[in-house]
Amino acid sequence: MSGTDRSRPDAAAGEDGSLVVVLVEPQLPENIGMVARAMLNCGLDRLRLVRPRETWPNDKAVAAASGADRVLDKARLYPSTAAAVTDLHFVCATTARPRYMTKQVLTPRSAASEMRARAAAGQSVGVVFGREASGLDNDDIALAQAIVTVPLNPGFSSLNLGMAVLLLGYEWFTSSAAVAPTELMMPEETRPATQAELHGFYEHIEGELDQCGFLRNIAKRPSMVRNLRNLFGRASLTQQEVRTLRGIVTCLVEARHAKR
Prior knowledge:
CATH architecture of the largest domain: 3-Layer(aba) Sandwich
Helix content: 40-55%
Shape: globular
């Protein structure tokens, strides 16, 4: 279905383009191109790629984008999912499978509403999509504050990458007039913590838990770490709260060493 009108305003040139789309290890460049097309349909142009399987830039992606070259030209490469979301305040991870994690589960519509409200409050938001064959792994999911699942036929709910991005993008695009800016009750001297600040805290506390033996069970360590990250991720911590938690960890460690 065609419908490009160069004479009309481009929504991606305004605030609608503030949503970040992250593709983790996309396998086919054609799929990346179709994602770019879906994004520009919905006024989005901030695409991040985590370790694409084939070389980048790629002519096959350009052909599949059907004119959405600007999205591909602006696409940025990252070595890991954590690196791709490090500057974001709120991250949604897409999955069709139960992950047995304690996380908020959103539909595309409720996710768009939540992200719109946060974006209006000055937060950076993004959605992470997984590999075509296997989706996101649990460590990727653990980096997100919420899960997005599309309510489809339970007997057949398979979506290709471009379709999934289009669904989320459409809900984001059509929510622009429905969501009024919200005001966060937050002291002026702080702000929502970025993923980089949260990741620094995670590494800090996990390192100390390794030292004291709490994470000594090698087999259970990955799931214990994910549970800890999910716990703190749900708290929507501020920059100041992260500093306070790191100070608490440091104080407890110093007190333990002083008693020896």
